[in-house]
Amino acid sequence: MSALILAVFNDFETADRVRASLVRDGFPTDRVELTAPGELGRVATQPGHSMHDKCVQYFRTLLRNKGEEHYPEMLAQKIDNGATTVTVQPRGQIETERATEILHEAHPADVVAHDLAKQGWEHAASKHSGKYWIQHVWIEDSPETHCIYCRLFPGSSH
């Protein structure tokens, strides 16, 4: 698992609005995950006899660094008590800053950041003949757009 930001919300409605805001802002749906008692998402596919066990297993796969050992049980307990988590996997500094901004605007009860300093380059790559080829995109200057994110996601701010 790569870098992620996980926010805990005390109510489902706020978390659901945050998830929608992240997707509207341009985050792909496969990198935004909501976990709630009534909407388990990927948690439902985890091994375990109870929702709690499945949550512990899921959060353990996300948060496995030294110093993060207490989070899986704590987060599973929060889900048991009716909380909802939103997990975002940002790629690069711009997405990390934008995800952090969107999450904090909703006033989460807790936020956990994982491996944000270990993110790689923001690029599209494909493996060919044992080498990686990076696809380049030429973006001409425009008064309406100053970067690729503005071009790809018009109307969103970052």
Considering the chains and any ligands shown, give keywords for the structure.
158 residues; alpha+beta; Alpha-Beta Plaits; four-stranded antiparallel sheet; 5 helices; 34% helix
Radius of gyration: 17 Å
**Whole-Å distance between the termini?**
24 Å
Portion in strands:
15-25%
Separate helix tally: 5
For the secondary structure, the number of strands is 6
Helix percent band: 25-40%
If classified by CATH, what would the architecture be?
2-Layer Sandwich
Structural class: alpha+beta
Q: Can you write the helix and strand succession as a string?
A: EHEHHEHEEEH
CATH class: Alpha Beta
Number of domains: 1
Tell me the CATH topology: Alpha-Beta Plaits
How would you summarize this macromolecular structure in one to three sentences?
The chain contains five helices and six strands; from the N terminus they run βαβααβαβββα. It is an alpha+beta fold and 158 residues long.
Q: Your description of this structure?
A:
It is built from 5 helices and 6 strands. 34% of the residues lie in helices and 18% in strands. The protein has one domain (4-118): Alpha-Beta Plaits. The chain is an alpha+beta fold. The longest helix has 14 residues, at 92-105. The two termini are 24 Å apart. The relative contact order is 0.22. The model is unreliable at 122-137 (pLDDT under 50). The strands form 2 sheets. Strands 2-3-1-4 form a 4-stranded antiparallel sheet, sandwiched between helices. A two-stranded antiparallel sheet has the order 5-6. It is globular. α2 (51-62) packs antiparallel against α3.
